[in-house]
């Protein structure tokens, strides 16, 4: 059998195994149980969080031989055909490649026919926002007066592009991005079942790099296993993903806080010579300084710094070396530099100048210090200790 990637092999097959979307799956389960499933559903949310997967589970729940049931068996002919994408009663359409109104009309002609073997006919339209205006107009009448036992599920990453006339006829469910802990929990289940030994730091790095998308995290895990084998270590996974080593981030922040611009510039030179993405370095250094600022404010940060790659002891020491206004100014300067680097012909120069400014921020007097000096000067003037300048 050809290899099947982890993202497909570990695709949820029941509502209970959909990660992080309990608010959606509970509603759909109750709708199936009470026989109150809407004829048109709009699944909106970022990529890779379970929209199309949940749509397939809805189709199984409605057509399972032991149903309708919120817990489809997954083993009957109807469930297996839907999972394999060959069911005559569950039609999946990629709107991105079927934008023409003629194709939409051909599809809608089949709506009038009764389900072949199941109870419901389910149409899953992926990336629905890509349909043309004419296609939406053709779909509108069907959504307005749908035939019995037909369910439309529109999945989209850009719900604002769905016309209001379509939107108003759908029951909307919003899928959210997943947290690092939620993605990490799922990845631990996968590596355990796959017989892969993975450091806790490696799991965290993969979960954080996915930016809230479980599918992206699974694809990154697949890539890591293909490259590194059955043992995933934090440093190797970070290098594979093009991330800057944690000790380099800590050293760069330490040099800035010590007002040693030369040291941090030497670090940039070393990163550039090894082919690292300097924009990525700016982003990660900004994230580390954010963690340092939070540790200065919160004695017990809890999950606020769960994605931190620098150990908390080092970050706490660095938090004692700077004030909050200084850290805020550093983060703002780095974010501005990263934005400028996208357009710059010499992004390294932009970063170097920003890092020099960061080191010099600690030489500048604070606003509170200037106000204190002015107050002291006013007091001395009022007491006659200093002669006002002569006109």
Mean of the pLDDT scores?
88
Q: Write the element-wise H/E pattern from the N-terminal end onward.
A: HHEHHEHEHEHEHEHHEHHHHHHHH
The counted number of beta strands is 7
Structural class: alpha/beta
- Which word captures the global form? elongated
Strand content: 5-15%
What do these coordinates show?
The chain is an alpha/beta fold. 54% of the residues lie in helices and 8% in strands. The protein has 18 helices and seven strands. The strands form two sheets. Strands 2-3-4-1-5 form a five-stranded parallel sheet, with helices on one face. Strands 6-7 form a two-stranded parallel sheet. The protein is elongated and about 95 Å long. 36% of the residues are buried. The model has no long low-confidence stretch (mean pLDDT 88).
List the keywords.
18 helices; single chain; five-stranded parallel sheet; alpha/beta; 391 residues; 54% helix
Secondary structure elements and pairings:
Layout: H1 6-9, H2 22-33, E1 40-44, H3 51-63, H4 77-84, E2 90-94, H5 101-109, E3 121-126, H6 133-144, E4 150-156, H7 164-167, E5 171-174, H8 180-194, E6 197-198, H9 200-209, H10 214-228, E7 231-232, H11 234-240, H12 246-257, H13 261-273, H14 278-297, H15 312-319, H16 324-343, H17 347-361, H18 367-382
Parallel strand pairs: 1-4, 1-5, 2-3, 3-4, 6-7
Helix pairs in contact: 2-3, 3-4, 5-6, 8-9, 9-10, 9-11, 12-13, 12-14, 13-17, 14-15, 14-16, 16-17
